[in-house]
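Aim 2 progress update. The chain analyzed this quarter is reproduced below.
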Amino acid sequence: MGTIPQLHPINPSPLQNPLITKKPRSHSTAFSILRVAETQLSTSLPPFHCLNGYHEPNSLKSVKIMHAQIAKMAKDKNSDAKMQSLITSYLIFGDFRSSAMVFFLGFAQNYLHWNSFVKEFTSFGGDPFEILEVFCQLHNKRVSFGSRVLTIVLKLCANVRVVWLGTEVHASLIKRGFDMDVYSKCALMNFYGCCWGIEYANQVFDEVPDQEGLLWNEAVLVNLRNEKWLEALQLFKEMQFSFVKANSVTLAKVAQACGKVEALDLGKQIHGFIIRSALESNVWVCNSLIGMYSRNNSLELASAVFDSMEKRNLSSWNSIISSYTALGHLHDAQKLFSDMESCNMDPDIITWNSLMSGHFHCGLYREVLILLQRMQAAGLKPSSSSITSGLQAISELSYLSLGKELHCYVVRNGFSNDLYVGTSLLDMYVKNDSLTYAQAVFDSMMNRNIFAWNSLISGYSFAGQFEDAIQMLNRMERAGIKPDLVTYNGLVFGYSTWGRNKEALSMIHHMKVSGLTPNVVTWTSLISGCTQKGNFMDALDFSIQMQEDGIKPNSATISTLLRACASLSLLQKGKEIHCMAIRNGFMEEVYVNTALIDMYAKCGSLVSAYEVFGKIQDKTLASWNCMIMGFSIYGQGKEAISLFNEMQEAGIRPDAITFTALLSGCKHSGLVNEGWKYFDSMKVDHNIIPTIEHYSCMVDLLGKCGFLDEAWDFIERMPIMPDANVWGALLGSCRIHGNLKLAEIAAKNLFKLEPHNPANYLLMMNLYAASGRWEDVDNIRDLMGVKMATLGQWSWIQINAKIHLFYSKGKAHPDEGEIYFELYQLISEMKSSGYIPDLKCVIQDIDYDEKEKLLLAHTEKLAITYGLLKTRSSSPIRVIQNKRVCSDCHTVAKYISMLRRREIFLKDGVRFHHFREGKCSCNDLW
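Predicted structure tokens:
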């Protein structure tokens, strides 16, 4: 045999993990197997018995004695068992080098022992680097190893990324003529794939002239381990064309790859190949098929594979349960969980984590916390994934006190240094507006990734603490971490949310200077911030600027723009954005559809809203709530109730927003009995605690229907303090029914709660004026003082994509003369049909004719009249007003709808009024 090449010691290199020099253990030894073999047995040694008769060694010295006995004796049928016992004994007493030497000289030729040895070695605290050091030491002592040993060493080099030693082993294989051995080639492909790159691994494969089945399987697996999914699948196809049989491991991994790239058809073909190969009973292969089908949203096929399995292990149950939870089928997942327990299969941490993750992604945050408690009650300790899910749920629920409790658990159980847990803790405090605690968590983190920096910077930005945000940004850069798009996007959103659009645009410019390209998320953050601040026109303007920069909107951009249109009631613009959503293929997005429902409902096109709703395949709770609210604001309470019943039949559980929408429908339609029914059922049937919004709806419902005493009694019995909405609802009802006594009580509370809201003062002035109490009108006007100057009323109508504004004060419309001419004619026709001006709507003590002139100047009348003049006779008139419509304008709109045979949609500050053939959808309850 040729000269054995000298191997270098395992030195760290830039391409591998540095090997930390260790001090020898106090019980380590220079004991050499080579010397043991030459050691003569001492007469004082105890007699050697068979393995089963050994006394357990009680010290490292006794292990060495046992080793000497084994080395001296001839090899027998129990030799393997004795050597295994010897290796374990050395590991127990911490002599890792000796255990590795025993393995290399006694077992290394046998592949079956290799994995179990490494596993046992590391379980006792041994460092795999020590195995390689022993190999180098033995090799340099000219111990000759065959190709099998070198192959095993090469695998270990790949596992621990010892780059240069693996390369030297490759050279040794070539020098000794072992490089064409199929096992060596497989090990080389694995080594180069792990340490040098997949290109080098594929090069090793391509250089083999006669590619055997084992090599093909390894080539596919190496590409899969490097996440080269498509390349691996292509290799698998070529493998079939070469008539090479894939083993069960390769088939299982290839099936998983089909799930990664969503290649359902190819996955089905591989399933067929598995059946032809008689591997359909292989549990591991079936588990991979379940995962593949679920990743391709084919839950029925995944379930069919699971049902066909004769034997199932824990991974099988976890695979199918995680498939159901990932696709939102939580009821089925819970049933499988129960079936699993009934089959005496105990759920493990993966099972519970799958359930928690699924419930979180479906928005069932309370259920996540309940599952976390149940898991602990079952005797399982939460993992970092469990804690992360719990913290994320707490973030969404704003349960700060519970978050602090979980933080204590994290500290007590040693999860503080877990990067994901730490980042989730930080995010939880940020979302609960506890930036002091968030900063403390950040400062205590030993390892910080860019997500932690971004979370804290965005937290300061959202809170409007921009100096702190910029300080953190500078600190981040000093720490050598370069800000990314997420960092800047958080700042852009923060600035725009606080109305500081110039700074937001400046931050976008700074991104460009830093070499980053603002993307669709950047612009959507800017648009979304403007929408949240109420700068709706700015949001629409920025969307145009975004497209001029060549950035196409995504579904989030579309949803945000639709909300801006809904807030401004810009129906035509909303339709344009609807067309944009269709062109860009966003109509499958349920969030876009929900935003469309909201936009159409708030822009006076309930029919269009219902058409969009009907086309949604998988309706979410938000889409149901949006449509119920749409019916409600149009005064179609019975339709809202019918839709609520349909929602329950579909298995969708209502939330607090659902009941707000439902009670709003009842109040706008005067459905008192139904209102009481649903208010009482909230807590009894659905375990939902009524909020101030629900109490406000009930006060409004009772008051508008004339039950003012009941409304007052209801307020007195409320378990929470009434707010301005509650008192405002009572005051509005008093205006309708002329109850001054309760109105004064409501007004007194409103003036304290909202001293700068002129609408409250105006309502009381209307009440006093209707009763002829002009002195009290003057007193309220004096009480308002300068607030009266802020009481501007306006209405607008959109004609041919242009908005026409009508103000109660200030600039007149350029077509004012034409408008008043048409309006005078209309009033004359209305009077012939029985119209009598409601002079109670004028809060000034002037004569009859002057009051009638003032009524004519109301902005909603001018806008409706202009719509009659400038739109086709077949199209409806849509007018938006910022204040509550007065009773006289309401009556005029009914007459116009009858005389001109036109539909009129009037959206005031409270609700929609749909006038048709002399009637209004509100039934005069507004």
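Residues 570 and 661 are 22 Å apart (CA to CA). The mean pLDDT is 83. These observations will guide the mutagenesis experiments scheduled for the next reporting period.
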